[in-house]
Design brief:
Blueprint: E1 4-11, E2 15-17, H1 46-56, E3 60-63, H2 65-70, E4 83-86, H3 93-98, E5 102-105, H4 109-120, E6 125-128, H5 130-139, E7 144-150, E8 158-159, E9 170-177, E10 182-188
Parallel strand pairs: 1-6, 1-7, 3-4, 3-6, 4-5
Antiparallel strand pairs: 2-8, 7-10, 9-10
């Protein structure tokens, strides 16, 4: 059975992007430095390789409209898996005609997640986007949260969990601590 997993890098003060939608720092990518090749060999660290492999192994992506539009729908191809976008507005021309793996779902987050899980089969559904994650938590359709906690304070921008309907209990199921980030995976308690 498919598991839905929110996977996000976040600053210590809870931001996933600065006010201009960049990921912080002078190069605009500070929140993703942990996942870049490093060292003299130019190889990914073992944790970065593990998380990259998990992303590649997902069976579908569920992402918010703002996220997919900022990413230009990943060019219509997020590692060859279908992309589902919960939105009450119709998609733009690129998503409508040029990206056959992108499906806009107008009848709510529950339907979008059900379609993503059906498409994923026994593989995970990768979830992107703060608003979409908040809606999925509120609807009870998000199974796990994986946070890559970056040791930086952005001081402002877009928060991951800005608006939640109530307290949501999580259970820590994995912690991997590295100099670049602390990777914490939680299961959403129901």
């Amino acid at each position: 059975m498919s598991t839905s997993v929110l996977d996000m890098s976040m600053s210590l003060d809870g931001y996933i992007a600065d006010p201009d939608d960049y990921l912080g720092g002078e190069d605009g990518e500070r929140l993703h430095h942990w996942s870049a090749p490093n060292g003299p060999s130019g190889q990914l660290s073992a944790p970065a390789r593990q998380f990259a492999d998990e992303i590649i192994a997902t069976g579908a992506v569920l992402a918010g409209r703002r996220t997919v539009e900022l990413m230009d729908h990943w060019g219509g191809d997020h590692h060859g898996v279908p992309i589902f976008v919960p939105s009450h507005r119709p998609p733009g021309p690129a998503a409508r005609w040029g990206y056959p793996l992108v499906t806009y779902v107008a009848d709510g987050i529950e339907s979008a997640m059900a379609q993503a899980k059906a498409a994923a089969g026994d593989r995970n559904v990768l979830v992107h986007g703060a608003y979409t994650a908040q809606r999925a938590l509120a609807a009870g359709v998000l199974d796990e949260v994986q946070i890559h906690q970056i040791p930086v304070l952005l001081g402002g921008g877009h928060r991951l969990f800005d608006v939640l309907p109530s307290q949501i209990e999580l259970e820590i199921i994995q912690v991997i601590d590295t100099p670049e980030a602390t990777h914490i995976r939680y299961r959403v308690r129901r």
